[in-house]
Amino acid sequence: MNDPAELDRFGQQLMTSVRDEAIADLDALAARRMGGPEGQRWRSLLADADTRRTVQELIPDIVDLVLARLLHAADTGSLPLGWQRADGTWTELGGSGELAGWLIDSEGWRVRYSASRYNDPT
To answer: Residue 106, Cα to own-chain centre: how many angstroms?
Structure first.
């Protein structure tokens, strides 16, 4: 996709609908606020506070790694994905070789559009 406005729209949607939601769900699991079998499993695995803090620290890294791999797969064509533009037409999502960079760049989507925390290793 070569349209900067559409690429930006995609990034904003990815950050708010996928990244932020995933981190919120995982935070709720780590904080032991979720019920059901999955919540029970997390409660038993994260019984002590140190383990909970460690997992909570790693959550954004894990989500970002999964998103980066998804974007890389779209860019290389190993996972062909499409995007519906604002005008209703469809375009191939990948091909630029830069999608994962737009996620993690210091001025990229994560910084501009995500409301959730991220870890900057620098």
So the answer is: 15
Q: Look up the domain containing 48 and give its range.
A: 4-112
Supply the pTM of this predicted model: 0.92
118 lies in a domain?
no
Long-range interactions of 2-5: CB distance < 8 A, separation 24+: 2/96, 3/85, 3/91
pLDDT tens across 73-115, in order?
Answer: 999 999 999 999 999 999 999 877 789 999 988 889 999 999 9
Instruction: Answer whether 103's CB lies under 8 Å from 64's CB.
Output: yes
pLDDT exceeds 90 at position 50: yes
Q: ∠ CA(51), CA(54), CA(56), 5° rounding? A: 110
* 23-27-33-38 Cα dihedral, nearest 10 degrees: 70
Q: What is the DSSP letter of 32?
A: T
